[in-house]
Amino acid sequence: MRLSASLLYSSLLLTLFAIGCTEPEKPATKEEAAQLARSLENSMNKKSAAKFNEALDVASLQKRIQEAGSQKIDTRIVDGAMKELKSGQLGSQIIQALGKTGTYQLVKQYEKDKNQHLVFRMYANSKLNYHDLEVIKKKDQVKISDVFIYMTGENLSATLAESALLMTENLDNLTEMDKNRLNNIKRIRQLINQEEYTKAQALYKELPAVLKQTKLFQMMYVQIAAGLGNDEYLKAMTDYKKSYPNAANVYLLMIDAYILKEEYDNALQAVNQLDSLINKDPFLDYYRGLIYKMTGNKAKQLEHFESLNASMPGFSDGTLELLITYLDAEETDKAVALVTNKKSNYKKIDKEQRETIYSLYPEFKKQLGADAD
């Protein structure tokens, strides 16, 4: 195996998300994990990866990668990935994916196998994901030892181990051209974040076939296909489900697929199953409200958008949907009360959208008066 090629591959290990003596891991307390959660949420929503990168314990993650790979992984491949992790690549990629308006919010905290866990919701550009952070303590510092990423349906350590093991077993069999094309992996991720999906697809097609057969790369293509039109997106999601019908991320993935196929009952079931997996996130009432809106069930649409607003009054997309629901029902007084509530993020709704609402509902603008500005 050529060392240079193995290091090139390490960039993949971060696009989706020598073991020596390490400090012993200890459980963090509930209060310590809660303090870390507040720090991470504040930092990430200010679009700074500093706290996340500082909290990620690379040595603990590396240990879990080797364990997940049954100690069969070429350590040079893992070392290359760890070098990038130490430089803050993972946290920076999350910030890049959040963009200017995305949010990273704590959903719940729980304990499993004596370790505290923090579940964060990542929502950006109408795309949903969850990160379940395993929290430990080392050298009296509270750290993140692994991350279960809902979009991939597995721990980050398992994803990295699977990929590193694949390269350990197959890199020597790749042609020189295929090895050179490993350079494209990081570029593909950049193009996805830049919403240059056609260019990303072209580079993806050039990747070695052995890689594109894996779960990791099929998931990457689903992300690319999301920007290539409904038909290609639906095909990519359906193909993924056929390959991995029992994957933990199928519920999250198939919400869009069922909506595109107008299978709204199945879409609702997928939302509810995802909610059960997380063990309740009030944000998912947003998806329920949208699905009932598509079916024309105005009573259920109203029920879920009001429930969402009661739990998350600062969520501007939810405010917009509830506002339109009230206005369509000619409940102008309720619409005015909604947007003038101090907890409302109405002014964060795009100005052009607000002007469209005023033109469609002039009585609403009239009652708002100065608050319409």
Automatic annotation (TrEMBL):
Would you indicate the residue range of the signal peptide?
1-20
The alphabetized UniProt keywords are:
Signal
Q: Which residues form a coiled coil?
A: none
State the InterPro entries in the record.
TPR-like_helical_dom_sf (IPR011990)
For this entry, the protein name equals: Tetratricopeptide repeat protein
Q: Which organism is it from?
A: Paraflavitalea soli
